[in-house]
Amino acid sequence: MTMQYEQRPLSIDIRLDALSEREWRVCDNRLPESDHLSILGFIELRNGLFEVTTMDDPGQRVIFDSLAAARNAFAPIPRERVHTA
């Protein structure tokens, strides 16, 4: 039986993998690390703000004022945005 994850992950399902001091890969812990679908997007620190790029819409970037708020952008409850580019 194959499990399907059609719902967005909860906050506890989200993992941040540090790629550098200023970049993180956002992953869904419900899927194996070897599954490319586990990658939800990326967060990058730019000019003191955290820029979110999702795999669902890679052309859109959303800006948050904290890493926690950027991480929570991948959870089902929307968080207040600083700016949308």
SSE layout and pairing:
Blueprint (H helix, E strand, L loop, with lengths): L13 E5 L4 E6 L10 E8 L2 E6 L6 E4 L2 H6 L10 E2 L1
Account of the protein in words:
The protein has one helix at about 65-70; strands spanning about 15-20, 25-30, 40-45, 50-55, 60-65, 85. The chain is mainly β and about 80 residues long. It is built from 1 helix and 6 strands; from the N terminus they run βββββαβ. The chain has a 6-stranded antiparallel sheet with strand order 1-2-3-4-5-6. The model is unreliable at about 1-5 (pLDDT under 50).
Short description, anyone?
The protein is mainly β and 85 residues long. It contains one helix and six strands.
N-to-C order of helices and strands: EEEEEHE
What structural class do the secondary elements suggest? mainly beta
| Spatial shape | globular
Mean pLDDT: 85
Poorly predicted regions are: 1-5
- Rg from alpha-carbon coordinates: 13 Å
Count of extended strands: 6
The end-to-end distance, rounded to whole angstroms, is 41 Å
The strands making up the biggest β-sheet line up spatially as 1-2-3-4-5-6
Portion in strands:
35-45%
SS field, number of helical segments: 1
Number of domains: 1
Range of helix content: under 10%
Instruction: Tell me about the largest β-sheet.
Output: 6 strands, antiparallel
